[in-house]
Give the backbone structure.
Amino acid sequence: ETGVTQTPRHLVMGMTNKKSLKCEQHLGHNAMYWYKQSAKKPLELMFVYSLEERVENNSVPSRFSPECPNSSHLFLHLHTLQPEDSALYLCASSIQGGRGTGELFFGEGSRLTVL
Amino acid sequence: AQRVTQPEKLLSVFKGAPVELKCNYSYSGSPELFWYVQYSRQRLQLLLRHISRESIKGFTADLNKGETSFHLKKPFAQEEDSAMYYCALSEAGTYKYIFGTGTRLKVLA
């Protein structure tokens, strides 16, 4: 499948659970992003990986742990989350180079509910 | 701090009427500005960027550095334009990509 794919699309977890969100891109991009989208808030940049190296970490709590094993895959490991962490988590990818960041290609998102 | 502001949460217009979705930004350097759109049940996707200076689906946006604005305009709205629109700013030389809160456009028949 081409484009950016996120799994699972929906996840319900308790505060003591450990779960992971997965993102794959088959576009040949070298940068991948995690964004959090909550109601009435702008898209919040959480993490950026460029060539599998974390280049941006926007003061995200340690209960969120990203992993980028290769340029096509990105994970977000979740542990002891809070109900306020319930949101839509979006993955995106882009080609980095030259002056700056180009177009972001987004996945459909993983809807997380923390009970 | 860098910021993107979209003052309108909801904008309703009639079909055939002109549309302007407002975007203001706060940034000290030379930003790259984008408009993204999310149609119902579809993923967020790029609509246009200021450096390309092109018209997509009849939409245009001009970067006004004096007013720090990047408003999205279309002379005649169509029902299929109904969607969520996000203005975004990319900081040159960094990986920061900042989004506004979005404006929902409803085009009424």
The radius of gyration of chain B is 13 Å. DSSP finds no helices and eleven strands in chain B.
